[in-house]
Amino acid sequence: FAGVAALLLLRPAPPQSLYRFSISPPENGEFENGGEMSISPDGRYFAFVARAGADKPPTVWLRPLDSLTAHPVPGTEGASLPFWSPDSQQIGFHANGKLEKVAVSGGLPEILCTASRPGASWNREDMILYSDRGSLYRVPDTGGTPTLVATPVAAQNETAFDYPQFLPDGRHFVVFVYTNASTPTFIGAGSLDSKNVERLTQSTTNALYAPPGYLFYMQENALMARPFSARTLRFGGPAVPVAQNVGEFAGPQY
User: What separation in angstroms does the CA of 19 have from each of 22, 65, 249, 251?
Assistant: First the structure.
């Protein structure tokens, strides 16, 4: 057994493959704000926001990655920024000032609470972290009374928190921090167990965490990857570009 284990450890890792594919808007339709796209945690589905026509409302569309066909999700008219449950069985979204969820298998959406701003994240403890009126709140994924998590500190020129994303432990998160004109916007890190949001790095966009330990964010039309420890909330090295000439949608300013 020890010899077999050693051989397995010494065996070179299989080469990594690079996949390229395109996502098209609905026929005679258009993407909303660049598509506002999200891939399910299990890697099987792709959700995006699009209009079926110029006079149609933005709607969540769902496409299996092994298919070329996407279909609108009923009841998601007016939606923005879809996000996924950890088990990939439900899609969360904002619509008409509400935070809602809908099952991938079908059925009508459920309203969870009021939410004035898009951008949310769902952890394995059945909790959703979201932004409302510039502050961060959490609410059970069954709905209920939201709990304040963190609010901007005016003395530090912070004006709003937006686009939160849970880190793997489901307690810590990264978030984009809007500031007033005298202070650069930045990416921050916080915890459900603290009211403080710590500054990580200056950025004009939100960041996305990806295993085994990277933060991805934009810098001068380049998509950057920077080693990041989700345990210590510290960077492990400089940022490096992974894609050039990447489009960027500028969200609302505060």
Answer: 10, 12, 24, 28
**Among the ranges given (76-80, 159-163, 202-206, 232-236), the one the predictor scored with the smallest mean pLDDT:** 202-206
Listed in sequence order, the residues at least 6 apart from 6 whose beta carbon sits closer than 8 Å to its beta carbon are none
Query: For residue range 26-71, what is the model confidence (pLDDT) as tens digits?
Result: 888 888 876 688 999 999 999 999 999 888 999 999 999 888 889 9
Buried/exposed 43-70: b ≥16 CB within 10 Å, e otherwise: eebbbbbbbbeeeeebbbbbbeeeeeeb
- The residue among 227 and 36 whose pLDDT is bigger is 227
pLDDT at site 117:
76
C-alpha Rg value of the chain to the nearest Å: 19
pLDDT given for residue 253 in this prediction: 46
Q: Which pLDDT score, from 0 to 100, does residue 14 have?
A: 60
CA pseudo-torsion sign 72, 76, 77, 81: negative
> Taking the model in full, what pTM does it have?
0.86
